[in-house]
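Handoff note, outgoing to incoming analyst
You'll be picking up this chain. Sequence as last confirmed:
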Amino acid sequence: MRAAEPAVPRDAPVGASVATIEQPERFAAYVAHELRTPLATQRALLELALSDPDADLASWREIGEDVLGACLQQERLVEACLALARSRGRPQRCEPVNLALIATETLRAHDLGDLESAVALEPAWTNGDADLLERLAANLVSNAIRHNIVRGRIEVASRTESGRAHVTVANTGPLVPAAELQRLFQPFQRFNSNSRSSSDGVGLGLAIVRAIADAHDATVTAQARTGGGLRIDVAFPALLFVDSGQRC
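Most recent structure output, in case you need it:
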């Protein structure tokens, strides 16, 4: 496998969000705006079908498939909002978790398609809610796949270093200006690019990553890479001695 591409020495610790559920009025406005498009699409499709006196079964089936697609978009948005809400505050469950195992299971659950992968997973134990940490890893990997290039590359690593348990996901992809790094972790923010499927998400994936990290006293650092793409590292307080009786 090829060696990892060097990263631009421009990294940005990700700070607090400017529009989260802690600011309910602004967050509600964002959600309403995001729901408006699929709802308007469904209404337009149904009005078109109802206004056509010659509509047959085939045309209604086509309309139904389009409406279903809009419904699925709404469902993804609602699920993401619920995940973001759940990830705020302290974890409800707290137990020893190996980030290497979570990263392994996450990769197994994702279809990388034509992407080359480089995996370097060392034990990295922390205390936390396993379900939330699985969501964090899944969002990082999904983001790296979605915002990539044809026959690109994804790198996933875990390690323990200087008292911190790290999980790191990097990818090839479009060039990301340093000024855009912070914005990508805000709710409903999408980076306009020519990536393979940049329009598939709802703009909450990295906001959820940041929220889950905050809930676990972890730090998120994003780095734009020289040839395009991102390197995102999440560093948790490490468990140097794993004890099933330990709690947060």
